[in-house]
Amino acid sequence: MKRHLLIIDPQEDFCNPHSGALFVAGAEADISRIAALVQRTEFSAIHVTLDTHHLLDIAHPLWWGDTDGNPPAPFTIIETKTRTLWHAANPAHQERSVAYVAALARNGRYPLCIWPPHCLIGSAGHAVAAELFAALCAWETRTGRSVDYIRKGENPFTEHYSAIAADVPDPEDASTLPNHSLLAALSQADEILICGEAGSHCVASTVRDLVRHGIPAQKLTLLTDGFSPVPGFTHLQDAFLADLKAAGARLTTTEEIK
Residues 94-105: what's their mean pLDDT? Predict the structure, then answer.
């Protein structure tokens, strides 16, 4: 049986309780359990996604300003109905930014949330959490196969929660369009085990997109002790798990995987 492991964004900024710019409570324990799973379990392939951002990003504070030029605080939600008159700090980005917020309202995925700058290109926070990275290197040494690392999020004009496609794809940027290479690789698996951060956002979006793009939910095993929600967004993870269970996905824990 071909068993693939898909680990979503297991990076220091999400998983390090001391230095993580967007630490997800519980992520450090998730990482330990995932590392142990990698060490004891046979996988045909391991895929690891990496959230990858510029400081100037549409979901970071510096992109926006109020009427006095002040940036929004982290976790501010900007919607078409938002009372505060936010504008793009760079006037050249204004029209596109307004259109982006409107596109999010139409597609029904997530409203625009302003996050603390995180997983910045070149930063320590972009790296895979150290304990898991050691386990992945050991797996490569043991099997002679390379981990498939997938970067996402470099286009500053759109969010990229899902490893499959950006929330609002840019037709002129192939990196925001459906990742057919990853979809083709995963389609070869008999079972796809999924974990990583965060269960409310990037894990949920990736899994929903997998099903949307033709990966049967019955192939998916969601490791519920291998991801945690962003604080304040637990309801999104709960809804995601309920939807996928109803669609036929398997919900279990790392300890149950043999």
Answer: 94
Nearest to 217 by CA among 182, 253, 200, 242: 242
pLDDT at residue number 108: 83
Task: Spell out the alpha helix ranges (H) of the chain.
Answer: 12-15, 27-40, 94-107, 130-143, 180-187, 202-212, 234-247
Split at pLDDT 50, 70, 90, the class of 47 is very high
Tokens of 71: 């940036």
Question: By the 8 A CB rule, do 204 and 233 touch?
Answer: no
Check if the beta carbon of residue 167 is closer than 8 Å to that of residue 160.
Answer: yes
Closest C-alpha among 187, 194, 258, 246 to residue 220: 194
**Full set of structural domains in the chain with CATH:** 3-54+117-256 (3.40.50.850), 61-113 (no CATH)
